[in-house]
Amino acid sequence: LAATGILSMFAAAAQARWVPDPANHIGTYLSIWIWTAVAAAALIGTQMHARTRRIHSGLADEMIRMAVEQFLPSAVAGALITVVLVRFVPSAVWLLPGIWQVIFSLGVFSSCRFLPRPMVAAGAWYLLTGLVCIGYGDSRALSPWAMGTAYGVGQLLVAGILFFTAEAGDER
User: Fold this and answer.
1) CB within 8 A of 153, min separation 6: which ones?
2) Which residues does 16 contact at the CB level (< 8 Å), separation at least 6?
């Protein structure tokens, strides 16, 4: 999970270098962030699979499946909103980073019952950053750091919460 946070920072740096005007190059902007999301999801999926194999528990498989099922509607909603805004309301595409973060927060919140209690802080982080992006009210929300910082810090927060709560669980 920490690697996905770092991946977000690299994507932000790539956007800053190659897409200085994302409002006028929305296809390139979307490519960077969609591929980053796909790569992060693949990395997380691989890690979850490896973790369940190490634990060798049917319960671990079931809990991961349930957490993914809780999160999946948010991912689908984010994808569909992206298609609708890009296709039918291109003047509102600047809303996407904020909407993605708000939707991601809802996915985190809906998965919290299967995750450590402090994970609510990560959901609150994504909600706050999404609302800040929407609050920009214009194409400043397409800044590389609006996405890079939100997901970079957010995923590092998630990784830290999981690391320290797992460590606390080992001590018990």
Assistant:
1) 5, 125
2) 144, 145
Q: Which structure tokens are listed for 60? A: 């671990």
**152 neighbors 129 (Cβ within 8 angstroms):** no
Say if residues 11 and 36 touch (Cβ distance below 8 Å): yes
Going residue by residue through the chain (172 aa), what tens digit of pLDDT does each one get? 899 999 999 999 999 999 999 999 999 999 999 999 999 999 988 887 777 777 656 666 677 778 778 888 999 999 999 999 999 999 999 999 999 999 999 999 988 887 889 999 999 999 999 999 999 999 999 999 999 999 999 999 999 998 898 766 544 3
- If you ran DSSP here, which 8-state letter would residue 20 be given? S
d(CA 11, CA 81): 21
Q: Which of 17, 44, 15, 25 is nearest to 104 (CA)?
A: 44
Who contacts 163 (Cβ-Cβ below 8 Å, separation ≥6)?
none
Q: Provide DSSP, 113-168.
A: GGS-TTHHHHHHHHHHHHHHHHHH-SGGGG-HHHHHHHHHHHHHHHHHHHHHHHHH
* Dist. CA 103–CA 76, nearest whole Å: 10
Q: What is this structure's pTM?
A: 0.88
